[in-house]
Design brief:
inorganic pyrophosphatase (n-terminal core), six-stranded parallel beta sheet, six-stranded mixed beta sheet, binds manganese (II) ion
């Protein structure tokens, strides 16, 4: 992976930076943002980090997570270079009409927007965190334990802790280097996978009851729903649903796992995961969303029955025939 020289030059030249990432942030968005912020600070830059949803409690363990603010200082933004990390559209950031010096996109999602004066997009990169790792190397900043834990978390979350197809030799080499820098992999895994609240577990149980396995030609999809009532009944919130999508994939015959999460009455965020060559980004694009071959998503409005049927039809049309 080649880091664009113009980004390195720009960082050396500029003084003020604002780093933003997508709503409902997960380990990659947060870890990549915080690691970049820490590296910029080590280069004596002025940095603010914004995420409109703040840091979900499960990510409080990330060193310097307190740098992430859920409010943005628009005055400071004006002088800033704006880094958009792990996404490439400002709607996903929840930031309207930012007035800033310039915009740099650092992302690994396939893209349909044209945001950014400098766009560094690596659809083949397993995580934005891996791109930030390479950028930090170019900046010749020493990767200390704090930076390493953030990068390691970013990379592990987006590779399912080295279980997904995107686990390349580079990922494993970088992870080893980060462990050398002081990361405790067991501790990170405990924080990520064994720290659920009771409310989250209850929400998970109610979601499992909605799982339906649908056959379309040669493809089997497990489709689940989480509606607003389920959040209310269990006391869990949207950030608690991270990772739920991966459980239906445990069924050996399932190729696609899909969850519809209601974020406003009648409005659904669809998350899709697939195994092997089944390309769910085609489905997401069909509905105006985006993503990667094995992980994608889109938003849709309507009655849940219709919305679920719409997905099944799209799978039938775009994937089953192959
Ligand atoms: Mn990511």
């Amino acid at each position: 992976m080649k880091v664009p020289e113009e980004i390195v030059e720009l960082i050396k030249r500029e003084e003020y930076f604002t780093i933003v990432s997508h709503l409902n942030p997960e380990g990659d968005a947060l870890g990549a943002s915080i690691a970049l912020a820490l590296a910029l600070k080590l280069r004596h830059k002025d940095v603010q980090v914004f995420n409109s949803d703040g840091v979900p409690y499960m990510y409080n363990f990330l060193p310097s997570s307190e740098l992430v603010e859920s409010g943005i200082d628009r005055e400071r933004l004006k002088y800033s270079t704006l880094f958009v990390v792990d996404c490439n559209d400002l709607e996903r950031v929840g930031l309207k009409d930012p007035e800033c010096k310039s915009v740099v996109v650092i992302d690994h999602h396939r893209t349909i927007t044209d945001l950014g004066h400098i766009r560094w997009i690596e659809p083949e990169s397993p995580a934005a965190g891996l791109m930030i790792y390479n950028l930090i190397k170019e900046l010749e900043v020493n990767i200390n334990r704090e930076i390493a834990v953030n990068l390691y978390t970013a990379i592990t979350v987006d590779t399912g802790t080295f279980r997904y197809e995107n686990t390349t030799p580079e990922v494993l080499r970088v992870a080893a280097e980060l462990v050398d820098a002081g990361v405790n992999p067991g501790e990170v895994s405990r924080r990520l996978y064994e720290s659920w609240s009771v409310n989250k577990f209850r929400l998970f149980v109610s979601m499992l009851k909605t799982v339906e396995i649908v056959h379309t030609g040669n493809i089997n999809s497990a489709i689940a729903t989480i509606n607003l009532d389920m959040f209310k009944e269990t006391g869990a919130d949207a950030s608690d649903t991270e990772n739920f999508i991966n459980f239906p994939r445990m069924i050996d015959s399932v190729d696609i796992s899909a969850i519809f999460r209601e974020f406003e009455a009648g409005c659904w965020k669809a998350s899709l995961r697939s195994k092997g060559n089944c390309d769910v980004s085609l489905i997401a694009l069909h509905f105006g969303g985006g993503g990667h071959k094995n992980a994608a998503g889109y938003k849709v409005r309507g009655d849940i029955g219709d919305v679920r049927r719409g997905l099944v039809e799209a799978i039938q049309d775009s994937l089953s025939s192959r």
